Amino acid sequence: MAYYKPCLTLNKANMARVLSEGTRGHEIQSITLAKALAHQYQLEHITVPAPWRWALPYRLIGLGQSIRSQWTESSVSSRLIISTGRQMAGVARWLKKNRQPESKHVHILNPGYYFRDIDVVLIPEHDRQRYPGAITFRGNLHPFNTRWFQQHSQPQNKSTIALFIGNPHNAYFKQQFKADLQHIRDAFKSAELFLCGSPRLNHETQRFIRSLVKPTESLWLDTRDGDNPYQTLLANADKIFVTADSINMMNEAGASQAALTLLARDYIQSKKHHRFIQSIEHRLSEFKDLDKAHPLPDPVKELLDNSDLLERLELA
């Protein structure tokens, strides 16, 4: 992010209106940005019916009538509208045009077309999308900064090894996962091993993983296993293994001081994933390494400090 500016004081908005279609990863990014830019935020879940679901963010005609009953009226006016993903880009465009013309609209991820009525577009560097006036950031926007880790870290009796499993290609589970798991066990025999999987894993893969886990090991794959321990592990693991299909998990694990090693790299074909991995190569550790590492920079702080985001949103 090649931009220099003098130190500016953030003048937070009173309220940010966050629009979400329910995708958890989108929601986290929007809320993280809202907390950085506003004193409070209002989260609104919007279900977009057909045919607008496929037509957004381009065609807005008739959209207001179809989602009118889902709007929440707030007693506090919002200077900011924040959206992530193409559907919510369209909903936010309609909202600004018809209800809040004075608000600033900031959209996260490429909306797919250049819209003059979106005030700021934020796009991950690894996407390499050419969007006029876009501000780029690394990986994803997440809340796991230095203060968060200080607040959530806890003393551990012994080393904790976390294995974050995204949703890599089935071939990885058939050909390599069992061997990787055993390799981890052999390398860290005295440590506590905790496997934490994405809810996106299909039932067959979940059954396969469950069949491999030993009674002395911990596992979370869905709500049947209790509360999701992802954040607790992120804050307290000494070593994190993460499958390379999830840019969000790689970026968030890199925000910790834990030694970080990627799995399933040979099963990733996406160019954008390879570009992201290359950008954090310096943060990665050898397989058996347990040494603490220097965290990746906070992407939200980088946006605030090293771009013209605040000026464009009139918050400085």
3D structure, described in words:
- This protein is α/β, with parallel strands linked by helices and 316 residues long.
- It has 2 domains: 13-142 and 300-312, Rossmann fold (3-Layer(aba) Sandwich), CATH 3.40.50; 146-283, Rossmann fold, CATH 3.40.50.
- It is 34% helix and 19% strand.
- The protein is built from 13 helices and 11 strands.
- The chain has helices spanning 24-37, 52-55, 63-67, 86-98, 146-152, 170-175, 177-187, 203-212, 230-236, 247-254, 271-279, 299-306, 309-312, and strands spanning 13-20, 38-45, 80-84, 104-108, 120-124, 135-137, 160-165, 192-197, 218-220, 239-243, 259-263.
- The strands form 2 sheets. It has a 6-stranded parallel β-sheet, sandwiched between helices.
- Helix 8 (203-212) links the parallel strand 8 (192-197) and strand 9 (218-220).
- Helix 5 (146-152) packs across helix 9.
- The model has no long low-confidence stretch (mean pLDDT 93).
Write the topology of this structure.
Blueprint (H helix, E strand, L loop, with lengths): L12 E8 L3 H14 E8 L6 H4 L7 H5 L12 E5 L1 H13 L5 E5 L11 E5 L10 E3 L8 H7 L7 E6 L4 H6 L1 H11 L4 E6 L5 H10 L5 E3 L9 H7 L2 E5 L3 H8 L4 E5 L7 H9 L19 H8 L2 H4 L4
Parallel strand pairs: 1-2, 1-3, 3-4, 4-5, 5-6, 7-8, 7-10, 8-9, 10-11
Annotation keywords:
Rossmann fold; alpha/beta; 5-stranded parallel beta sheet; single chain; 13 helices; 6-stranded parallel beta sheet; 316 residues
